[in-house]
Every structure is written in structure tokens, then in C-alpha cells.
């Protein structure tokens, strides 16, 4: 970590070039001969990435950034704040600290937070940043987190782990045993140091696959940001063997959409019907959860088809996802398409439909955008249909 990057003139230069083309800047002569030009460009690029994702870091003076890739991979402040809402107590140890965004928010809820990071340079950088952010209750420990966990010999209220893929496992299906640290392998050891663990995994991990590798899972949180699933959070409690709760959260600019249910509860089933007046599309967190019968049952909606995952009603209701008013419904065939959609402009979604959005646009010369929303799907009678809608929310 080169502290010369904090020179006032260099910091002013970095701030003046936020959002500028790095490739064009790279062609310029370095105006600061004492500091590596690549390091300065990296700060510009990484800070640009942090502007919307990490507003507290962006607005704080003398923050030093790691590589652009590290910023892209770290939690956003919004998802970090959600994680902090899960934990409670006096102490938490993060075994995979990284850039420290999660720990900054944990420290707002927990009295003592330990940040473990195997990369000593990154650990030093994060320690510096925590001082700038006035996060005084976080202690940084460089080195192997398992060694740190053993040497501290403390009982923690929570252990937090964000395992990363091994480089040599890129070609395999994503499973926790392919990650570092290997959580399933070390879980018994973790539970000798804490009664509760929070495991973050990427959205591509299949929920059933995760459950086959982990034990004592009490709750699975599926977190989306602006309708894009960002992470799965596995809440484990030592000795727990009861029902598994599924909590979905879609973090939007002005609100959070939530829907919760118990995994595998037998009493939920779907009712089916042809399209009625309104159409409902669950948000991405609910789609990832697989709670298709549960959401339809809870909101008393009819499903269009077992595999379509679109819902309908005659009366308008609030719903965690997109809501539309159906203006027209017609069978998917050449004459109907020519009459209603050929050479028009529309937003297209396919659900349980054989053709892709791209092929539909190309075949019928439909331009993207506008105020018309078209769903290509399958109804309860296995007929391919098109719904022309206007968006309500």
C-alpha cells in the first residue's frame, strides 16, 4: 500500500477524472513522477465503480481502493446493510473479510467485529479505510482465517463467511466443496467457536445443492438488488433441525419487496385459470426461491400454467414483482402476430415458451422499448399465447 497516493494533488486529480476513459488517460504522461501511473489509474477506475455501489466510501476522503475487480466482487452497501439486519449480539468474526463492506455494516449492529483477510496488503488497506470511515470497533487480522480463529480462542456470537471459488474449479458446477474456505469440511470446527454462522454464496448455487452440503440451516435469505439476485445467505444455528425458512428480499430504490415461506410446506398448491384482467410476474428473488405455489396461494392468485410462473386475477392487488393490466390476449400464430405485433415496438418477456426473445424480435421485426409489454407464454390448456399489457408497477 503506497500512501503517497494520498497526496492532496493526486487525490484532486483522481476526483477530477472520475468517469473518464481509462484507456485515454493511460496514453497521457504521468504528471506525478513519484507515484506509479498504473496505480493512479487504478484508483480512478475503482473509485468510479464505487460511486453508486459504495457511496460512503466514495464520499469519504483518503480512501484507498483495491483493484477494479475487487470492487466489482464486493458487496454493495445495500446488500451489506441487509446482512447486518440478520445478526445480533456482542461479537462477530468475518473469516473472508475482503474489502470490508460487510464488516462496516456489521459493526453498526455488533460491538466487536474481527476482519480476517489472507492477503496482508489488502488487510492493511482495509484497516486504513476503516480509520477514515471512523469504524473503530473493527480489528483487522491478516493471514489464514482458520489460524486466526484458533489463536484468538474466543466464543463468537456469529461467524461470517463469503467463500470464493477455487481457480482450478472454474469448469465445475458450483458447489461449496469447490470453494475456499471449504465450509462443509470446516463446519464442525466453526461450531466449536460459535453457535451461529452466516454463509454468503453466489446466486448460481442451487438451493437444493446447498442444503445437501450444509447442516443446521434455519433460514435461507435470497437477496436481489433492483430485481437482480445478488447473493444467497445461509443462516446456520448449531444443533438446529427444524423447518427451513425462505426469506426473499428485493431491495429497490424506495422500498424493499419481501416474501417469506417455509420450505416444503405441504398445504400450498396452485389454482389455474386463463388470463384475467391483471397479470403478475414475481420478482427475481421469489423466482430463485422456487416458491411458485406459495406466492400464488398467499396472494390468492391463479396461475397461467404449472411451468409459466405468471399469475392473474380479476381484482388488482399489491404484489412483490411487476404488475400489468392485460389489454389483449391472442393465440401465437402468424395471422394474429401480423395483426397485432409485426413491425411494432414492445418490451418482450418469455415464460415457458419455446422461442427466445431475440428470435421473436427478429422473426416479427419488433423493436425494443415503448410502453407496450408483451408476454409470450403457455396457458393452462398448453396453448401458446401472447398477452399485450400495460405496466402498472
How would you summarize the topology of this molecule?
Layout: H1 8-16, H2 22-26, H3 37-53, H4 55-59, H5 68-73, H6 77-84, E1 91-94, H7 101-106, E2 112-117, H8 120-132, E3 138-142, H9 145-152, E4 158-161, E5 164-165, E6 179-180, H10 183-193, E7 196-201, H11 207-213, E8 217-225, E9 228-237, E10 245-251, E11 256-262, E12 271-272, E13 278-282, H12 284-289, H13 292-298, E14 302-303, E15 311-313, E16 321-331, H14 334-340, E17 347-350, H15 357-364, E18 373-378, E19 384-391
Parallel strand pairs: 1-2, 1-4, 2-3, 4-7, 8-10, 12-14, 17-18
Antiparallel strand pairs: 5-6, 7-9, 8-9, 10-11, 13-15, 13-16, 14-15, 16-19, 18-19
Indicate the mean pLDDT.
Answer: 95
Low-confidence stretches: none
Helix content: 25-40%
Tell me the structural class. Answer: alpha/beta
Task: Report strand order across the widest sheet.
Answer: 3-2-1-4-7-9-8-10-11
The total count of strands amounts to 19
Relative strand content:
25-35%
What does this molecule look like?
- With 393 residues, this protein is an alpha/beta fold.
- It has three domains: 3-68, Arc Repressor Mutant, subunit A (Orthogonal Bundle); 74-262, 3-Layer(aba) Sandwich (Rossmann fold), CATH 3.40.50; 271-391.
- Helices cover 31% and strands 26% of the residues.
- It is built from 15 helices and 19 strands.
- It has helices at 8-16, 22-26, 37-53, 55-59, 68-73, 77-84, 101-106, 120-132, 145-152, 183-193, 207-213, 284-289, 292-298, 334-340, 357-364, and strands spanning 91-94, 112-117, 138-142, 158-161, 164-165, 179-180, 196-201, 217-225, 228-237, 245-251, 256-262, 271-272, 278-282, 302-303, 311-313, 321-331, 347-350, 373-378, 384-391.
- The strands form three sheets. A nine-stranded mixed sheet has the order 3-2-1-4-7-9-8-10-11, sandwiched between helices. Strands 12-14-15-13-16-19-18-17 form an eight-stranded mixed sheet.
- Pfam families: PG_1098_Fer, Thump_like.
- InterPro entries: PG_1098_Fer, SAM-dependent_MTases_sf, Thump-like.
- Keywords: Methyltransferase, Transferase.
- It comes from Flavobacterium rhamnosiphilum.
Amino acid at each position: 500500500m503506497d500512501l503517497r497516493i494520498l497526496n492532496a494533488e493526486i487525490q484532486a486529480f483522481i476526483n477530477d477524472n472520475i468517469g473518464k476513459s481509462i484507456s485515454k488517460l493511460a496514453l497521457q504522461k504521468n504528471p506525478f513522477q513519484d507515484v506509479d501511473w498504473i496505480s493512479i489509474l487504478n484508483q480512478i477506475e475503482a473509485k468510479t465503480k464505487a460511486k453508486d455501489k459504495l457511496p460512503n466510501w466514495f464520499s469519504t476522503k483518503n480512501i484507498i481502493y483495491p483493484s477494479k475487480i475487487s470492487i466489482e466482487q464486493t458487496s454493495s452497501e445495500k446488500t451489506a446493510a441487509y446482512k447486518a439486519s440478520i445478526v445480533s449480539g456482542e461479537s462477530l468474526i468475518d473469516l473472508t473479510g475482503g474489502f470490508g463492506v460487510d464488516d462496516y455494516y456489521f459493526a453498526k449492529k455488533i460491538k466487536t467485529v474481527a476482519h480476517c483477510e489472507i492477503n496482508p496488503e489488502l488487510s492493511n488497506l482495509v484497516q486504513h479505510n476503516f480509520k477514515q470511515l471512523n469504524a473503530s470497533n473493527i480489528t483487522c487480522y491478516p493471514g489464514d482465517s482458520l489460524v486466526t480463529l484458533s489463536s484468538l480462542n474466543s466464543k463468537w456470537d456469529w461467524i461470517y463467511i463469503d467463500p470464493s471459488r477455487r481457480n482450478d474449479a472454474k469448469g465445475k458446477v458450483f458447489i461449496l466443496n469447490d470453494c475456499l474456505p471449504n465450509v462443509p469440511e470446516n463446519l464442525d470446527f466453526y461450531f466449536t467457536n460459535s453457535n451461529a454462522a452466516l454463509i454468503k454464496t453466489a446466486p448460481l448455487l442451487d438451493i437444493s445443492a446447498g442444503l445437501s452440503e450444509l447442516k443446521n440451516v434455519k433460514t435461507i435469505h435470497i437477496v436481489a438488488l433492483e430485481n437482480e439476485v445478488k447473493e444467497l445467505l445461509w443462516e446456520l444455528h448449531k444443533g438446529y433441525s427444524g423447518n427451513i425458512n425462505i426469506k426473499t428480499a428485493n431491495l429497490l430504490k424506495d422500498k424493499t419487496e419481501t416474501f417469506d415461506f417455509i420450505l416444503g410446506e405441504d398445504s400450498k398448491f396452485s389454482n389455474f385459470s386463463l388470463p384475467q384482467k391483471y397479470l403478475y410476474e414475481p420478482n427475481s428473488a421469489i423466482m430463485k426461491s422456487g416458491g411458485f405455489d406459495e406466492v400464488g396461494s398467499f396472494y390468492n392468485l391463479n396461475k397461467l400454467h404449472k411451468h409459466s410462473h405468471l399469475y392473474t386475477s380479476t381484482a388488482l392487488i399489491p404484489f412483490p414483482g411487476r404488475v400489468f393490466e392485460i389489454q389483449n390476449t391472442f393465440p401465437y400464430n402468424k395471422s394474429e402476430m401480423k395483426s397485432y405485433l409485426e413491425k411494432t415496438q414492445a418490451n418482450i418477456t418469455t415464460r415457458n415458451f419455446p422461442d427466445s426473445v431475440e428470435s421473436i424480435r427478429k422473426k416479427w421485426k419488433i423493436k425494443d422499448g415503448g410502453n407496450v409489454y408483451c408476454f409470450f407464454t403457455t396457458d393452462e390448456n398448453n396453448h401458446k399465447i401472447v398477452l399485450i399489457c400495460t405496466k402498472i408497477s
